[in-house]
Amino acid sequence: MNSPVANTERLGRIVWLVVLALLLAAPFLGLYPIFVMKAMCFAIFACAFNLLLGFTGLLSFGHAAYFGAAAYATGWLVRSAGLPPELGILAGTFFAGVLGLGVGLLAIRRQGIYFAMITLALAQMIYFV
User: Which of helix, strand or coil describes residue 83?
Assistant: First the structure.
């Protein structure tokens, strides 16, 4: 009889193979490239959330704030400032990193519900700005 660990590992391999097959077949299935790009962005977002919650046990409500701030900064820099999109993406990523550093300095010493509430409050502040 197979152990639960072996079954989980086998299931994980199957899931990765299916995802890889879908990614390789995506251009031929008629999926819109924008849809695939959005799906990949949200997959990265989910991986970051899983990394923080799964390995450290910290529930952060601030992930969307960094994601949105980087997108807003990128869009503004490309459209209004006239930067090329590649440079705008780099600048937006840098902006989100600086914002994350500032929030991290405020919230890093908290645990549990206090950390969650601080990140929620800061995310709401960014949302309304």
Answer: coil
- Which residues of the chain fall short of a pLDDT of 50? none
Q: Are 62 and 123 in contact (CB under 8 A)?
A: yes
pTM of model > 0.70: no
Residues 6+ apart with CB under 8 A from 100: 66
Q: Is the dihedral of CA 121, 123, 124, 128 positive or negative?
A: positive
Each domain of the chain, given as residue ranges in start order, spans 1-31, 32-128
Select from 52, 99, 55 the least CA-distant residue to 73. Answer: 99
CA distance 23 to 73: 29
